[in-house]
Amino acid sequence: xxxxxxxxxxxxxxxxxxxxxxxxxxxxxxxxxxxxxxxxxxxxxxxxxxxxxxxxxxxxxxxxxxxxxxxxxxxxxxxxxxxxxxxxxxxxxxxxxxxxxxxxxxxxxxxxxxxxxxxxxxxxxxxxxxxxxxxxxxxxxxx
Length: 143
Prior knowledge:
Layout: H1 2-38, E1 51-57, E2 64-68, E3 84-86, E4 91-97, E5 103-109, E6 118-124, E7 133-136
Parallel strand pairs: 1-7
Antiparallel strand pairs: 1-4, 2-3, 2-5, 5-6
């Protein structure tokens, strides 16, 4: 009988070690999340705390179109997105991942046909914004 009881205790050791490792892993992840949040980030890439909110505001008197660019020079438009129609006086809400050196460039145009004249609206997301950032189309410059 004592032999059976001893084997039972030995069999529990791997389970106990596994449970301890799992608890340690959870504590480590929790600690990393707390540290990240203190810096203004979250480990969850979908967490809104990782993004700055921008109001892409059409401050002109005509309807304009805006499209996310694939690169800083806006040589190509991001194929994963479509043109967004923004009526005069209205705004389109966008979110940009923030962090040192991060930015997003949007093409602003009065026409969506290829070859149409575009201006570039650069959204600097190098630091965390505490509120929605106003980004008027009139601040767009040459691409």
